[in-house]
Amino acid sequence: MKAALARLTPRLHRPDRYQVVQSLKMAAAAILAWALTGWWLEAPMALMAPWAAVALVQGTVYRSLRTAVQLVLMITAGTLLATGAAALTGNTMIAMVVALPLTALLGNLAPVGGQGLYASTTALFVLAYGSHSWPAVGHRLLETLVGAAVGVAVNAVVLPPVHSRHVSRLASALPRDSARLLRDMADGMEVYDASRAEQWHRGAKDLLAALSELYIGRGWDSESFRLNPGRRLRRWTPAPSTDWDSVWARVANRLLALTLTLWETASEDRALPRPPGRARAELGRLLSAAAEACEAYETIMANAADQEQRHRRDSALAEAHRALATVKRQLHGQGPDADAALGSLVADCHALLDDLAPSEQHV
Questions:
Q1: pLDDT on residue 261
Q2: What is the pLDDT of residue 334?
Q3: N or C: which end of the chain has fewer CB within 10 A?
Q4: 323, 304 in Cβ contact below 8 A?
Q5: HEC states along the chain?
Q6: Distance between CA atoms of residues 16 and 149, nearest Å
Q7: Cα four-point dihedral sign 124, 128, 134, 136
Q8: Which residues make Cβ contacts (< 8 Å) with residue 154, sequence separation at least 6?
Q9: Are 332 and 312 in contact, with CB atoms under 8 Å apart?
Q10: Per-residue pLDDT, 147
Q11: Alpha-carbon distance 342 to 337, whole Å?
């Protein structure tokens, strides 16, 4: 148990505001749906209403509406197929043999995503509990509609979700994480080994994973404004343009190539030697200056009019180019293998500084 808890603990994290709000909305929608159908209307199948309500408090109002249509269609199909099979066969077991393959196939073929599962589960509930009379069918569908309406209404009226802040946080994390990686590389450049270089390479891969998360977040951000009645009332943080993503995608790929070369120069399985000591020192100075520029970009993104940070960025890039020029002067005379390794690093660093140069794509 202790070992299992130790593995689980790093995966646990404090819930953010969005998770807390959506969880409370799901609970409120379920309670309200139950109060309407089970307590006030005294419906015989009141469970269907809170079940549907919980499922329809989605990440966006548009997704709630779309999912509501899909869910109602699948529950209706499952109910009708199960009821028809029971009426034709007169036997629960035979009805299951007839209805479940049909509902499972329908759920997989219909363009409803994960909602296709509701066709089979509804058919199973109908047959298992014997609630397949026509009045029961009517109650089941009515209570599903009530629950769907409650779930969509709660999600749309009570703090309708907007994801622009999440996108801004993801976007600002790119220069911050790039700076952290560059700073670590600069500190270890003179004495790095294969293990540390491999760690840098994994860090560069993490940057690409963060970019993928940002692309997904932008999709959620765009969708969260569709059919959202509270989009003008909710506070939202404008995210940088998609050009920002392109810039940091190039930076991440440069770092991936750079760290791979460093890893290969430190690996005993490769013939590439480490760069000479003077070159490593200058590369460390270059990477430290590049980290300074990335840190300035993070602040500029938050406050585009920050002239002090623009000057900090420009000064850092100028320092990086001076270090690069010093490294270039050492490209010859070290031997073919050493020149090849150093030349690859120089090319990657040169491209990295070009990507970090101010342009319209940056904030």
A1: 92
A2: 66
A3: N
A4: no
A5: CHHHHHHHHHHCCCCCHHHHHHHHHHHHHHHHHHHHHHHHCCCCCCCHHHHHHHHCCCCCHHHHHHHHHHHHHHHHHHHHHHHHHHHHHCCHHHHHHHHHHHHHHHHHHCCCHHHHHHHHHHHHHHHHCCCCCHHHHHHHHHHHHHHHHHHHHHHHHCCCCCCHHHHHHHHHHHHHHHHHHHHHHHHHCCCCCHHHHHHHHHHHHHHHHHHHHHHHHHHHHHHHCCCCCCCCCCCCCCCCCHHHHHHHHHHHHHHHHHHHHHHHHHCCCCCCCCCCHHHHHHHHHHHHHHHHHHHHHHHHHHCCCCHHHHHHHHHHHHHHHHHHHHHHCCCCCCCHHHHHHHHHHHHHHHHHHHHHCCCCCCC
A6: 27
A7: negative
A8: 25, 28, 29, 32, 53, 57
A9: no
A10: 94
A11: 9
CB 120 within 8 A of CB 152: no
Q: How far apart are CA 93 and CA 247, in angstroms?
A: 61
Whole-angstrom distance, CA of residue 254 vs CA of residue 201: 11
Give the type of residue at 209. A
Q: What is the C-alpha separation between 125 and 108, in angstroms, rounded? A: 19
Residue 38: closest CA among 175, 151, 146, 160? 146
pLDDT along the chain (363 residues), means of 10: 55 73 93 91 84 92 93 93 92 93 93 90 88 83 93 91 80 93 94 92 95 88 78 59 88 95 85 83 95 92 79 94 92 75 91 87 52
User: Taking a C-beta distance cutoff of 8 angstroms, is the pair 126, 132 a contact?
Assistant: yes
* C-alpha to C-alpha distance for 62 and 68, rounded to whole angstroms: 10
pTM: 0.74
In total, the chain counts a number of residues equal to 363
User: Which amino acid is present at 102?
Assistant: L
Structure tokens at 103: 């509902």
Cα–Cα distances in angstroms (integers) from residue 58 to residues 8, 12, 231, 296, in the given order: 26, 22, 16, 37
Residues 6+ apart with CB under 8 A from 268: 194
pLDDT at 11: 53
Sequence letter at residue 285: R
CA distance 165 to 97: 50
Q: Nearest Cα to 189, choosing from 205, 203, 200?
A: 200
